[in-house]
Amino acid sequence: MTRIVMVALDGLRPDMVDAALTPHLAALAAGGTRFARARSVFPSETRVATPSLITGCRPGGHGMVANTLFDASVAPDRLLRTKLVEDVLAMAAGAESPLQRASLAERMAPHGLRFALVSAGTAGAARLLHPAAERLGAFRWNVEDTEGDAAEEVRDALGMTPEAAVPNIPRVEFAGRVLVDHVLPRHRPDVALLWLSEPDVSFHWGGLRAEHTLRALRAADAVLGRIVAWRDAQPDAADIAIIVLSDHGHVTGRGKRCLRSELQRAGFRAGTGMAPDVDVVVAPAAAPGLWLRDAALAPQIADFLATQSWAGPLLARDPAILPEGRAMPLALLGSGHARSADLVATFAGDEGPDAWGMPGTAPFDAPDVPEGGGMHGRLHRAELATVLVMEGGPFRRGAVAAEAADLTDIAPTVLHLLGIGTEGMEGRPLGGAVDAAADAPPADETLELHGGFVLEAMRGASGRLYPTALRRAR
Q1: Which residue of 58, 71, 94, 165 is surrounded by the most CB atoms within 10 Å?
Q2: Within 258-367, where are the H helices?
Q3: What string of H, E and C letters represents the secondary structure of 358-415?
Q4: Full-prediction pTM beyond 0.85?
Q5: What residues form DSSP beta bridges with 191?
């Protein structure tokens, strides 16, 4: 029976995969099936992407709509930060998880199959990737864990977890050891997921091709090399498949600004919680969410943003709060949910080169990311494009798949290989991964948006829309 090891390199742009910088990943891509049209979800943020990956549903299905969000029923006076386990559990309101769809582990368990997670990312993201670990008696370990059976087990086997750093190489390498030296031989999961925090950490705080960013990417690729070596040494190596993915890409942040402050200067009572003197709650992001006390404010905010050169088109949970055509519905992207912001603002990026010659720059709103740091979250081409490589086991050799794919198609593909149904998932098994005849290219579409912008998209054979790039009309 096929076993699967999934490796996520957080934030990796596919145009940074090459034989010199990432030799192990480049070799896997050349020897397996590479999905050239793989995409993220919107917003292209990690704690939106992780539940999309693990549930096979977009945000409108699973309910995690942003890294930072506002939910008056949970915390009326502040924003929720999903990197924190306590905020994730607060959103769950006493339930096991805030996710409204079953995870991959939960779908595997009734069939006697085991899922294990090793994470060098945030504790909140790890909880979203494997929310039912305790109930299922399954393995979930994150570099921030200090208590619990998994933390004690890893300490006893491998020692203390290194401190966080930029670049986060010590933790990336340690997480690789946890998987290869401990979890794979001791727990023998049917599916394992290793989440590496690089190159995302270094992208954010150093830039896309800073010297320490390249060191971090090489270190992450070296971990992948260890996994390949482990696989190739196993007696059932021919039945062990490796899936490498990234959850989103990055652009270079250029023109940092605070949308809350911009709204305040324009006369709006904006804040980070719905206090008596606040009418608009703003969650900072590459695509900031705005929750309104009164929907009647929406046209005024839209009119203000339309006058700003840095502002892109608006998206809305309910487009009816604006005149027709002024906002794109979040539901069109599979991102509309009761938790979604009333309005989601975008920044007007471009596809020109940054200081390293990498295409893609955009303004951004992120208090802890410096000017020139990498950012993600919008619908920019470089943020939506992701790495997706499937190699070994039943996957095609030396193939470049033409079909459209996004994060929600990965878990259905895994379940299909395991002989498990995918009912209730929005994604679908990627037939092109195993059968060239099933590899159907998508149709290209262009949607005109307000303010001189267009959305490039792909329409898959199933009729599903895959956004590709938000750009200014030419």
Answers
A1: 58
A2: 259-265, 298-306
A3: CEEEEEECCCCCCCCCEECCCCCHHHHECCEEEECCCCCCCEEECCCEEHHHHHHHHH
A4: yes
A5: 4, 115
